[in-house]
Specification:
Length: 744
C-alpha cells in the first residue's frame, strides 16, 4: 500500500503570544509548533490568546457627586452633625439629637471597630484634623500627616491590644490586688499618683438628689465665670446618666466629678452642711480624689476627648487656690498640650467645623490660655508664644440659648451683658497682653507692661484704649445691683487699675537713691489702690455676690495691698489715709487667714509691714493725753508675734540649760523646735527664701519675727522705695492659697 505524499505547505506564521507552558514558567518562547520548550518537556504545546483587558468604566459626574456627598456626610456625622435632621428619622431609628465632639464621649459609644470610611481627615494649611469615633486629634508633623489615612489601622490595633491588656490585668489583680494600683502602666498616675485603691467610682457619687443640687449650684456659682461647655447639652446628659451611674462613660464621669468639685468649692462651710449634710472640707476632699481618679480612669494624658479636657480644666480652676504655684503652672501646661493635641490652637472655622463646634472649641481654648497665663505669672516664668500662632478669635458674646448643635449660621452677638460677658472680658484683657508681648523681657504675660524700653506714657495710653474698649463693650451695660453684672464691672475696673500698677511699679527703672515715681504718680496709685481694695471688700461683704467668693478669693490684689502699706509708712494723716486704713481693716476682717497663717511667707511679711506702717501712724499723730483707738486686727497681729517671741525666749532658755553631752542630740527633730500651741514654723527663726535674691541667709541665730524678711524692704531707710522685684519673687515663692476655713 503506497503511502500518500505530503502536500507541500507554507511555513506557519509566527505567533504573537507565548504558549501557556512558557507563560507559566515565565521563560522565553520561540513561538513554534511545538516550541522548543514544550518539545523538550514532551508536553502538548498549546497557544491561547489572553483575554482582552477590561475597560474601566468611567463614572458619570452624577456618580462622582454622590460619592463626594456620602463622604462629606460621613465626616459631618463623625463631628456630631445630624445630617438627616431635615429629612426626619428613618423607621425604627431613634433620634437622640446631635452630639458634638465635645459631648460625643458623654453617651455610650458603639463598640464596633472603626472602618476607614469612618475616619474623617479635615485638611488645613498647617496640618490635619483626624477624627475617629468623634475624638479629634490634630496632626502638624509632616510624618504624621502623611500617615493620617492609616490611623484607623493603628486604632484597630489599639482596641485589640487594650482588650488583651485587660485580660492580663485581671490575672495580675488576682495575683497581687494590693500592688496592682502601684504598678499600673497608666502615665496619668505620674501626675496624680494612685488616688484611691478602687478604680470604680460608683461609691463616691452623691445621691441623685444631691447630684442635681450640686449641678444647680454649679450653674449658679461656677458656670457664669467659666463657660467651658454648652450647659443645655450637658444638662441633658446629666439627666440621662443620673439614673444609671454604673453605665456612665468614663470621660463624662470625669466631667461629673469635676462639676461636683467646683460646686463644693464655691460653697461656704455652712452651705455645705445645710445642703450636703457634711463639712465642706470633707466633701471637697472626697470629690477632689474622685475627680483625680476619674481623670486617671479616662486616661486624660492620652485622651483626645474634649470632654476629658473640660473636666481637667475645671479641676484646675477649682484647685487653683489650693495648689503651689509651680504645680499649677505644670498642670496648666499639660492642659495646654492636650488642647494642642486636639487641635484647639487652630480655629474651627479654618478646619471647616460646624459653627457650634467652633464656638465650643474657642471657649475651651481661651479658658486654658488664661489659666496658663495666670499660673505663669505666679510661677515667675514666661509664656509660650508658639501656641498663639495663628491667633484664635474670641468666643461670641452670646447666651447658651443662642447656640445649637444643629445651627448652620453664625449667631448675632448681643450689645450688652450676656452669659459669656465675664469670660469674654477676661479673654479681651488676655488677648491684649498676648498681642503686646515683646522679646525684651521675660516676665510672663506682663512683658509689655514691665518692659523699661517702652515709655510709661505709651503704655498708659495703650491701657486707656483698652479701658475704652471694655467700657464700650461691657461696663456701660452693667447694673451693679445684679450680682453677675457687679462681678463683671469689678473685674473690668480692677483689671485696668492693676495693669497700671504694674506699669508704674515694674515698668520703669529704679532711680538710685530716690523714688521710683514722682508725687503725682504716687497719689494716682494710692487712690487707685484704695479703689481696688474697695471693690474686693465690697464683693466680700455683699450677700448676693456670695456665690462668686471662690473666684474673688483666688485673685486678691497683693500689689495694691503692699503698695498701700508702703505709702502709709510716709502718709500718716488725711482723708485718703483714713480711707486706706479702713480698707486694710476690712481686708483682715474678710480674710481671717491673714491673721492666723504663720507658714505663708507673703502673709507674714505683709503683716510685719502693717505693724510698721501702724507704728509710723501712731508716732506721727501722737498727741499727749489722747489715746488712739487700736483696731482689733492690729492687736491680733501683735499678739501673734508676741506669742512667737515668747516661744522663742522659752526655746533659748531651754537651749541654755541643755546639758552638753554626746548621749543625745540637742534637738531630736524639727518638730521639737515648735511649740504645739503656737505652731510657729522654723522659717520664722532661721529663714532662707530660695531663688529670691533677698539676701536672707540661714542661721542658727533666731531672728525677731517682726524683722522677718525685712530684706524685702528697700535697702535704704527711704520708705518711699519698695523693692518691687523682691516682692515679686515673694509672690511667686509663696503662691496663692485659699483664704477660707477648711481649705485644703
Amino acid at each position: 500500500m503506497s503511502m500518500p505524499h505530503p502536500t507541500p505547505t507554507s511555513p506557519p506564521a509566527a505567533r504573537l503570544h507565548s504558549c501557556q507552558l512558557c507563560q507559566q514558567r515565565k521563560v522565553k518562547c520561540d513561538r513554534q509548533q511545538p516550541c522548543s520548550g514544550c518539545a523538550k518537556a514532551g508536553t502538548d504545546c498549546v497557544y491561547r490568546a489572553p483575554a482582552p483587558p477590561r475597560r474601566r468604566k468611567r463614572r458619570s459626574p452624577e456618580e462622582i457627586l454622590r460619592a463626594r456627598l456620602r463622604r462629606y456626610e460621613a465626616i459631618l456625622k463623625n463631628l456630631g452633625v445630624n445630617v438627616d435632621a431635615n429629612e426626619g428619622t428613618g423607621p425604627g431609628e431613634k433620634d437622640d439629637g446631635p452630639v458634638s465632639s465635645h459631648d460625643a464621649a458623654q453617651a455610650p459609644k458603639d463598640t464596633s471597630k472603626t472602618r476607614p470610611e469612618d475616619v474623617a481627615c479635615l485638611g488645613s494649611k498647617l496640618g490635619r484634623l483626624i477624627v475617629v469615633d468623634g475624638k479629634p486629634r490634630f496632626l502638624e508633623n509632616a510624618l504624621w500627616v502623611s500617615l493620617g489615612d492609616e490611623l484607623h489601622t493603628s486604632h484597630d490595633l489599639e482596641d485589640s491590644s487594650t482588650q488583651g491588656g485587660e485580660d492580663d490585668a485581671d490575672e495580675i489583680e488576682a495575683l497581687m490586688p494590693e500592688q496592682l494600683d502601684r504598678f499600673s502602666p497608666d502615665e496619668s498616675r505620674l501626675l496624680f499618683g494612685s488616688a484611691i485603691n478602687r478604680p470604680s467610682l460608683l461609691y463616691l457619687h452623691p445621691e441623685p438628689v444631691k447630684i442635681f443640687t450640686l449641678w444647680q449650684k454649679f450653674l449658679e456659682n461656677v458656670d457664669p465665670l467659666t463657660k467651658i461647655f454648652h450647659t443645655p447639652t450637658v444638662q441633658q446628659q446629666v439627666l440621662k446618666v443620673s439614673g444609671s451611674l454604673g453605665n456612665m462613660p468614663k470621660p463624662f464621669e470625669a466631667l461629673m466629678f469635676a462639676i461636683y468639685l467646683c460646686a463644693v468649692v464655691s460653697l461656704s462651710d455652712e452651705e455645705s452642711r445645710g445642703l450636703l449634710g457634711e463639712p465642706r472640707k470633707v466633701v471637697q476632699q472626697r470629690y477632689r480624689l474622685g475627680t483625680e481618679q476619674a481623670l486617671i480612669n479616662a486616661e486624660f494624658i492620652k485622651s483626645s476627648d474634649a470632654t476629658v479636657l473640660q473636666a481637667f480644666a475645671l479641676y484646675l480652676l477649682a484647685m487653683r487656690p489650693h495648689m503651689e504655684a509651680q504645680t499649677l503652672w505644670i498642670l496648666s501646661g499639660v492642659a495646654l498640650r492636650i488642647a494642642q493635641r486636639i487641635g484647639l490652637h487652630h480655629d474651627g472655622a479654618s478646619l471647616q467645623l460646624s459653627v457650634f463646634e467652633t464656638e465650643m472649641r474657642r471657649r475651651l481654648w481661651w479658658q486654658i490660655v488664661v489659666l496658663d497665663g495666670f499660673s505663669a505669672e505666679l510661677s515667675g516664668v514666661g509664656i509660650l508664644g508658639g501656641v498663639h500662632n495663628p491667633p484664635i478669635p474670641l468666643p461670641l458674646n452670646v447666651n447658651d440659648i443662642d447656640l445649637d448643635p444643629n445651627m448652620t449660621g453664625v449667631p448675632v452677638e448681643h450689645n450688652g451683658i450676656t452669659e459669656m460677658s465675664f469670660c469674654l472680658l477676661r479673654y479681651t484683657i488676655g488677648r491684649f497682653l498676648r498681642d503686646s508681648r515683646t522679646k525684651h523681657t521675660f516676665d510672663g504675660p506682663w512683658q509689655h507692661l514691665t518692659n523699661p524700653m517702652i515709655s510709661i506714657p505709651e503704655k498708659i495710653q495703650e491701657l486707656e484704649d483698652l479701658d475704652k474698649l471694655i467700657e464700650q463693650k461691657f461696663l456701660q451695660y452693667c447694673d451693679i445691683s445684679i450680682p453677675f453684672h457687679f462681678i463683671v464691672s469689678m473685674v473690668g475696673r480692677c483689671g485696668i487699675s492693676m495693669m497700671k500698677h504694674r506699669v508704674y511699679m515694674l515698668g520703669c527703672p529704679r532711680k538710685p537713691g530716690g523714688r521710683s515715681f514722682d508725687r503725682e504718680e504716687s497719689d494716682t496709685l494710692f487712690a487707685s489702690s484704695i479703689k481696688i481694695l474697695e471693690y474686693d471688700n465690697l464683693a466680700k461683704s455683699m450677700p448676693n455676690v456670695r456665690r462668686y467668693y471662690w473666684h474673688v478669693e483666688a485673685h486678691f490684689q497683693w500689689h495694691a495691698f503692699i503698695f498701700l502699706l508702703y505709702e502709709l509708712r510716709n502718709r500718716t494723716s488725711g482723708e485718703e489715709v483714713d480711707k486706706a486704713w479702713f480698707q486694710i481693716e476690712k481686708v483682715y476682717e474678710n480674710r481671717s487667714r491673714f491673721l492666723t497663717d504663720v507658714k505663708n511667707k507673703l502673709i507674714v511679711a505683709a503683716g510685719n509691714l502693717v505693724l510698721k506702717a501702724w507704728e509710723q501712724k501712731v508716732s506721727g499723730l501722737h498727741v499727749p493725753g489722747v489715746e488712739m483707738r487700736v483696731p482689733q486686727f492690729i492687736e491680733t497681729l501683735r499678739a501673734r508675734r508676741s506669742g512667737i517671741l515668747s516661744t522663742k525666749q522659752k526655746l533659748r532658755d531651754n537651749i541654755c540649760h541643755q546639758p552638753n553631752t554626746n548621749e543625745s542630740p540637742l534637738v531630736s527633730d524639727s518638730s521639737a523646735l515648735i511649740d504645739g500651741n503656737n505652731s510657729a514654723p522654723l522659717f520664722l527663726f532661721a529663714s532662707s527664701v530660695s531663688n529670691s535674691g533677698m539676701g536672707v541667709e540661714s542661721s542658727t541665730e533666731m531672728q525677731d519675727p517682726s524683722s522677718v524678711l525685712d530684706g524685702l524692704y528697700a535697702p535704704s531707710q527711704d520708705f518711699d522705695s519698695p523693692n518691687w522685684m523682691e516682692w515679686e519673687a515673694l509672690f511667686r515663692h509663696s503662691g496663692i492659697r485659699g483664704d477660707r476655713e477648711g481649705d485644703i
